[in-house]
Amino acid sequence: MDGQLGADEENSLIPRIVNGFSELRSDNTLTVESETESKKPLKVSSIKAGGMMSLAIDDIGGLWIWGNCPHPELSKSEEGEFSFVSSSVPIPVWNFHGHTVVKVACGNEHVVALVSAGETHAGGDLLCYSWGGNNHGQLGLGDKESRKSPELIEMFNLESPLEVYEVSCGAFHTALLTHRKRPSDTLKSLCWTFGLGDNGQLGHGITKSYLSPEPVSGLPDSIFLISVACGLFHTCTVSSAGDVWSWGMEKGLGLCPDASFNRADSGDAVSPLNIPCTGVYGPRFPEPVLVACGAAHTVLLADAGYKLWSWGRGRSGVLGNGKQVDCFTPTIAMWPPLIEDFKENEPDSSGGDEKTDQKSSKEIQEMEKRLSIATEEMKLLRSKYSVMERYASILHGSIFGRPFQEQDIPASLQSSGTFDIAKEWENMLDSSDRAKLHKLEMFYMTMTAGIKDKLMKKRIQEIVKECLHSETINK
Q: What does the alpha-carbon distance between residue 122 and residue 105 come to, in Å, rounded to a whole number?
């Protein structure tokens, strides 16, 4: 409706080509050489999409924008007045002409870009610019005034010892990752957030909005963060060591899973929570690559790009684990798929043996049928395993006050198929401290009292039934 599809049509139910890209150059610098070079087609090297706008970076470092977006050249507002422009085709952002746009992110109404100070990116020279809507301070410029033109965030100028190397935008908040320009400094990286903080998405321990970049103090020191992502009202970041932290809205729903699994303690996570990797990989995720946040869920790419984990709200199957339920802890997505999603075009068989082709076709169909059956069986097994895992976590959390993890499995069961439950229980009691034993005693007393109440109620019900039965016979 506002041109965010890059076309004049209102809506499109199928993918369509976005037209409108042309050589990014100034009209007054046109020469024979540049005219020849301008005939080369541009390649898109990076894309981002926000609430009502889309952006692309081309292979020469030019930035393009379309949809309902802030654009100074096309704005019809008066001098100093801010307004959005609707464009159904990509238009260049000329403010960065002569420089290289390296990375860009956008929220519902604002844009943040990392741009080289010179013509090309040489390392250590990236500047951070922001523009667009600023009702909550999401531009990080120290006020709430919106900008129709890119403006430098002075905290990260060329004289600053810090350089921004990653950026992400939520609906109305922003997160940045910085590292020190001098390699001798001990602190490896920092996460900075600003903008709307009503749901704790800034991670500063309170639900206050910030107009300028503020470091997230709840993260460990001397770590290197490789990726950061902002959802609608939550934020997530991952380190090179495989540690993942998340903060923001509704930790009880799995956006920022609560380590205690205590429903009474559910709500917004105003400080970073460590998200452990469950299963054989725990507690860290192996070889993390990238993290991404949706409106109410998180997806992590790890294991050098071969495995996907996801958690959060599972409606419409967005978690990719074969279910449509909310997940409180990271669950492995069904990747790689067992059935190929795309088939190669069949070669021209003219002049070939038709019987051989028919036989090959039948074999392919039979294999696809078997793969389909195997996929359904795996979905069923995953579903059963998920139910068992959640049931075990509920019981374990009720008794021990924390979720069930891989290391909680007794060694005898890990090493063989035999399991002496009496012996393992005795070993666990011997190794428990006083506080843990007291907690077990309280749990046992509460459970016993509940069972006694249930037995009493059952006995009363049986007596009442016997009395009613006797009266019926006497009548």
A: 21
Strand, coil or helix: 370 = helix
The pLDDT > 90 percentage for the chain reads 38
Instruction: Residue 129: name the closest of 138, 120, 139, 121 by CA.
Output: 139
Q: How far apart are CA 105 and CA 228, in angstroms?
A: 11
CA distance 443 to 401: 11
Helix pair angle (434-474, 354-400), 10° resolution:
100
Residue with more model confidence, 31 or 20 = 20
Nearest CA-CA partner of 305 in 289, 321, 325, 294: 289
Chain-centre distance for alpha carbon 270? 17
d(CA 67, CA 54): 6
DSSP assignment string, 206-270: S---EEEEEE-TTSPSS--EEEEEE-SSEEEEEETTS-EEEEES-GGGTSS--TT--GGG-S-EE
Question: What is the per-residue pLDDT across 218-236, written as a single tens digit (0 to 9) for each?
Answer: 898 888 999 999 999 999 9
Distance of alpha carbon 232 from alpha carbon 225, whole angstroms: 21
Whether this model's pTM surpasses 0.90: no
Identify which of 288, 285, 266 has the alpha carbon closest to the alpha carbon of residue 276.
Answer: 285
